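QUALITY CONTROL LOG
STEP: pairwise intake check
CHECKER ROLE: data steward
CRITERIA: each record must contain a sequence immediately followed by its structure tokens, with no blank fields

ENTRY 1 OF 2
RESULT FIELD BELOW
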Amino acid sequence: MVYAQLENGRPGGLLVPKLRSSKKRLRQAQKAAVRNKPVRSRFRGILKQVRSAESKETADRMLTEANAIIDRTARKGVIHARSAARYKSRLAKHVAAMS
């Protein structure tokens, strides 16, 4: 991508794409970031909730919900499918180790 450094119309600041395709790609990336933010936030939140659960029974119940959210996050393309499998595995291992 070809960028021009501009700050209030003058060189030296923010990187702004010059090419039309680069400008479009930037717009697409910004829209995707806005679209993915609540999905990623919910994903991170459920992970924290399961990890900080008080009892194993609570963690077990939350694990099924967490697995569904992790799968949904992967299906939407926010995280990779293998990454989702890794999260699910590690979370299940964490819950199993609880006493």
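ENTRY 2 OF 2
RESULT FIELD BELOW
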Amino acid sequence: MKKQKHDGGFVAMSVGAGLLIVLVMASMAARYMGDYLKSREWQVVAMQTNRFTQAASSYVGRYYPTVLASATTTTPVVVTTQMLKNTGLLPASFSETNSYGQQYQAMFVRNQQNQELLQGMVVSRGGHAMPFTALNQISKDITAGFGGYVEDGQTAVGAMRSWRIALSSYGTSTGRGHLAVMLSTDDLSGAREDGDRLYRFQVSGRPDLNRMHTAIDMGGNNLNSVGTVTASNVAAQNGNFGVSLVSNGPVTAGGDIRSTGGWIVTRSGKGWMDETHGGGLYMSDNDWLRILNNKGFYTGGEIRGGKVRSDGNVSVGGVLDLDQINVANTYCPKDGSVSRTATGAPLSCQSGIWVGGAKINSNACMWVSSPDAWVNPGPRQFYKTAYCPTGYIQTGSRFMLWPKGLDDEHVDVYCCPLS
């Protein structure tokens, strides 16, 4: 019987070959994974560069006249990440550096062919230099402006060597292994037009696109279907309010204030006041309409009321007319009241009765003669005196003389009774 022969060397060689293949594949996988992670890192750097470049372009669009006034063809206006954060064009959380520790700056100068226009260059500074593979890939992924990189520290080169510009043209320089983005005159002019355009709709993150930075002239046209108008001042020829006008402060009018269908309503004891003379009308309780500052009330017309009262004297420049007629010896409600009869005779209320004044009864008048003369012995003076009886009043008199030697004078008085 033959013995089987074991080929141990072949087995060992097979195992070794398998292990070698595994090691080679693991090495390749590790390299591919490293390349993939690097590629992802470069994509992030490209996106970060795009965002900074877009913000820098928007900054110029917003402040174009200011930047243009400060820049020359060789001296740039420098825009930093912090400036873009301060103006709200970049969020506060935006990183100041990329993964290589490089910081971004944008330089803007006047275009040498047309100095009323701007051109710009974004470069990265400091940090660690990037390898060419990274520069080449990142520059291709930059979509804002024209992506590129700096090989020798003096010249910016476009992706796939599509353009080449000396950094000295923008008054700047940086080290090799850094990024560069060219912003052409057309790019910045477009950003300016974007900043000058008033958008009809809200743009997320761009409130400036819905904001006017100067006066707007409507050319006599209307603004229709407006919700709320918020303003510091409103100057208008005319105003028409369909419901109400509310003011938390004074309302000043250069002409009349007129209500065509309602009241002029005041509150809290206020009313109308003449500022020049300090008079006016107001109410401080539910009963009386008062004159401000106790001014007088004057009119050349008529004042009429249900009852007129004076707490002081009453002076009448003309006659006092009493319209109400009462009858003497009838009831009156208040002592001291004054009235008149139908013929105009005065009446006064005394003890609740209308009492009239005295009246001459001309139908019962008579002559009353004086008695004989009497003498005052001292100075030898003679007197003749005639008196009206009680209840009569003298309304006339007469005097007569007779021949000497008799009672030669005679005096009579004409007396009428009072009724």
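INTAKE CHECK: passed for both entries
DESCRIPTIVE NOTE, ENTRY 2: Residues 397 and 413 are 4 Å apart (CA to CA).
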